[in-house]
Design brief:
By secondary structure, the chain is mostly beta strands. It has a domain at about 5-20 and about 30-40. Helices cover about 0% and strands about 20% of the residues. It has strands at about 5-10, 15-20, 40. Strands 2-1-3 form a three-stranded antiparallel beta sheet, with no helix packed on it. A hairpin with a 5-residue loop joins strand 1 (about 5-10) and strand 2 (about 15-20).
């Protein structure tokens, strides 16, 4: 099960969650404020290990073969 990164559009909180691919965009809810305005971030590097609360934004180009 892949880990996805989400960002709340209400409070700006960035968090990660393990989800099935088929459920990646369903029933999203911010753990901080409870808002459902959450946007999934494209992050293929979460599996490789990212520092907690790491830098917001990219710096982590997805590599071919990740699916
Ligand atoms: Zn929030």
């Amino acid at each position: 099960m892949p880990m996805y990164e989400y960002r709340c559009q209400e409070c700006g909180k960035l968090y990660e969650q393990l989800r099935r691919m088929s459920d990646a965009d369903t029933n999203l809810q911010c753990p901080g404020c409870g808002s459902q305005k959450v946007q999934r971030q494209v992050s293929a590097c979460a599996i490789a290990g990212s520092s907690s609360g790491g830098p917001s934004g990219g710096g982590c180009a997805p590599r071919g073969g990740f699916s």
